[in-house]
């Protein structure tokens, strides 16, 4: 009797482990990358004098929770207190072979559009005229350019559906090196030289959530309700992308 109970318990444990493993195996995987580093290269400086990396970490942390709640496995390229090189970030994506790699940033603009201001923390800049909105960046050198564009387009569609505007500033023809627009409706740019996009061997997209040298867009980035709207839109886009994706490049 004792033996029977033990075998039954063992069977249940094995069955439980198998179910757990198969649930993990079927959960879609995304790698999230919070742009820049707390120590080395902290990115743009906002109108309020706050480093871009702080906005990236807040947004990416909330995005991680939303993806986990939606049933995704999430791998982060770094924790908020960690520094990671661009090559290390790409290596994490390549080793884990997710459905998609998404890098989160907050934007600035060219110096000619900016006026210098003083803040309590450090000298900063603000736009002379409104430059605001999200933009999406992909690289033709990524081996999954088409899938990267498909994911970026889905994110653009969902962001538009929640009323988000898009930032076409990078394509300004008066700039020395304007970025080519792939999709003007959702501000999807070819940004071929970005290392995390061109050295990743999985579909890869960089999202500039907003322009933190613009007063209104920085306020949007600080607003938890506004962030949640954008985050829900991104998760919805990823769910649509997952349903369309065969992911034949995946190792596991
Ligand atoms: Zn950045």
UniProtKB/TrEMBL annotation:
SUPFAM superfamilies: Zn-dependent exopeptidases (SSF53187)
PROSITE patterns: PROKAR_LIPOPROTEIN
Entry GO terms, CC: outer membrane-bounded periplasmic space
MurNAc-LAA domain location: 30-238
GO molecular function: N-acetylmuramoyl-L-alanine amidase activity
Catalytic activity field: Hydrolyzes the link between N-acetylmuramoyl residues and L-amino acid residues in certain cell-wall glycopeptides
Entry keyword Protease: no
InterPro entries attached to this UniProt entry: MurNAc-LAA_cat (IPR002508), N-acetylmuramoyl_amidase_3 (IPR050695)
GO BP: any one term: peptidoglycan catabolic process
Residues making up the signal peptide according to the UniProt record: 1-25
Gene3D superfamilies documented for this protein: Zn-dependent exopeptidases
Pfam families the record matches: Amidase_3
Swiss-Prot/TrEMBL keywords: Hydrolase, Signal
The protein's Enzyme Commission number: 3.5.1.28
Protein name per UniProt: N-acetylmuramoyl-L-alanine amidase
């Amino acid at each position: 009797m004792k033996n029977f109970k033990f075998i039954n318990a063992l069977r249940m444990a094995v069955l439980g482990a198998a179910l757990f493993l198969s649930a993990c195996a079927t959960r879609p995987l995304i790698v999230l990358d919070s742009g820049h580093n707390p120590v080395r290269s902290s990115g743009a400086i906002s109108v309020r004098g706050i480093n871009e990396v702080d906005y990236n970490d807040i947004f990416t942390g909330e995005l991680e929770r939303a993806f986990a709640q939606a049933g995704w496995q999430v791998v982060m390229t770094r924790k908020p207190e960690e520094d990671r090189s661009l090559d290390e970030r790409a290596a994490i994506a390549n080793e884990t072979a997710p459905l998609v790699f998404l890098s989160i940033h907050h934007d600035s603009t060219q110096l000619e559009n900016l006026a210098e201001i003083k803040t309590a923390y450090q000298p900063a800049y603000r736009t002379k005229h409104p430059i605001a909105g999200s933009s999406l960046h992909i690289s033709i050198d990524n081996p999954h350019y088409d899938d990267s564009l498909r994911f970026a387009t889905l994110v653009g569609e969902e962001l538009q559906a929640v009323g988000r505007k898009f930032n076409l500033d990078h394509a300004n023809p008066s700039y020395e090196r304007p970025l080519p627009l792939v999709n003007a409706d959702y501000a999807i740019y070819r940004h071929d030289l970005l290392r995390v996009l061109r050295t990743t061997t999985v579909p890869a997209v960089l999202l500039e959530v907003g322009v933190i040298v613009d007063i209104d867009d920085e306020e949007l980035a600080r607003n938890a309700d506004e962030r949640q709207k954008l985050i829900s839109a991104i998760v919805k886009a990823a769910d649509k992308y997952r349903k369309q994706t065969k992911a034949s490049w995946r190792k596991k």
